[in-house]
Design brief:
Helix content is 35%, strand content 28%. The protein contains ten helices and 14 strands.
């Protein structure tokens, strides 16, 4: 896919989250990506239990397409936490055509496909020493056929053309790989921590290639519930309170200019800290596994993205757990067209655009990957 002039558009990156939808589309301006259309739409609050969430998603996307100047109907979307499974496996070194069959066999042994047939994809991530042997480490992904079909039916009902269904951690990595242009970046180790509502993804890249992925079942939903319980407030009030604190953390006060009282911040921190500490312990294990398996050097920084990137406890606790400073990731940095970016506060919410940004950049000329396959490839159905 080549964008030869500023009027040519890439696909729409469609990130369907637990609480809303983010959509973004890029065009070329002076050879660089520029935002030409974007939409951020929250789902309605307090939906009746009988509500079909697919209907809500469909209406939300349709409204976004009507109100914003998206061009064309090509869409790249993704599966997030809870919508797919992943496992790391090690296989003998073999030609690519034999690797696909070996992955299929291993997937049938390791995943439970008794409920439904599944789509299987895999990503080779490098050679590892297993005893006295060299083996190929492969990340295998599986999504049930019914989940894939439901997403395709949703898009087709909106007359959208699904170019690809990606995976959230791969999209997050892609949104930052475009920055790796210097020769010294070729072997640089980068760690991205995608702090989402349903869970957290740890992504480790070496240069422009993914080397490690891990899903952790700690997300914004659990943090919000813990704050609501600790302060005896509703989940909606807890969500708004946490957002105010994160906006202050990012250097912006609330719209009313009133800061959150210190004692309230302390209570929120106490409620959130156990979850941050669990993330810290799991992150230690991830980095230890990576260092032993791939003999990789220690990263210089951790990059936090996702809706909870500005959570103060995460930045402090994670940095202390692995003795590596944390930084906030801004996937749209350096792009044009940000003035029209949807959202209440671009600085606070920009880290949450990492998935949508990476989806819209799929197969674009602005993302150059290394020699290995940079996208998951098919293995079996």
């Amino acid at each position: 896919m080549l964008f030869r002039n500023r009027h040519k558009r890439g696909p729409i990156g469609l990130d369907i989250g637990a609480s809303g939808v983010r959509m973004i589309q890029f065009g070329s301006e002076a050879g660089q990506p520029s935002v030409v259309a974007s939409a951020f739409c929250d789902f309605p609050r307090d939906l009746p239990e009988s509500t079909d969430i697919n209907d809500v998603v469909r209406e939300t996307i349709a409204e976004a397409m009507r109100r914003h100047p998206f061009e064309g109907r090509d869409v790249v979307t993704s599966f997030g936490n809870g919508e797919f499974q992943l496992k790391n496996i090690r296989l003998p070194r073999m030609p690519p055509d034999e690797l696909s069959a070996a992955v299929e066999f291993e997937a049938r042994e390791r995943f439970d496909f008794s409920r439904s047939p599944a789509q299987v994809r895999y990503l080779p991530v490098g050679e590892v020493r297993h005893g006295n042997e060299l083996k190929e480490e492969v990340i295998v992904f599986a999504a049930f056929e019914e989940v894939v079909n439901a997403r395709l039916e949703l898009l087709e009902s909106l007359k959208l053309n699904p170019v690809a269904i990606d995976l959230t951690p791969c999209a997050v990595a892609r949104s930052f790989i475009r920055f790796l242009r210097r020769s010294e970046d070729a072997n640089a180790i980068n760690v991205f921590i995608d702090l989402g509502y349903r869970g957290t993804n740890v992504i480790i890249t070496r240069g422009a290639e993914i080397s490690f992925l891990k899903q952790i079942e700690v997300g914004g939903m659990q943090l919000t519930d813990a704050v609501a319980k600790a302060l005896s407030i509703t989940p909606q009030e807890a969500t708004e309170l946490r957002l105010k604190i994160m906006r202050e953390q990012s250097g912006r006060r609330s719209d009313a200019g009133v800061t959150v009282p210190h004692e309230v911040k302390a209570a929120v921190s106490d409620a959130v800290r156990p979850f941050s500490e669990r993330l810290g312990r799991d992150l230690q294990l991830c980095l230890r596994y990576f260092a032993v398996t791939f003999r990789g050097q220690k990263p210089e920084t951790l990059t936090l993205v996702g809706g909870d990137a500005h959570e103060p406890q995460h930045s402090q606790v994670l940095g202390e757990a692995v003795s590596v400073p944390c930084t906030i990731g801004y996937p749209l940095r350096g792009m044009g067209g940000l003035a029209g970016l949807s959202g209440r506060d671009r600085r606070t919410t920009q880290p949450a655009w990492a998935t949508a940004c990476g989806l819209a950049l799929r197969n674009s000329p602005w993302v150059r990957t290394g020699a290995r396959m940079s996208e998951p490839v098919g293995a079996a159905t």
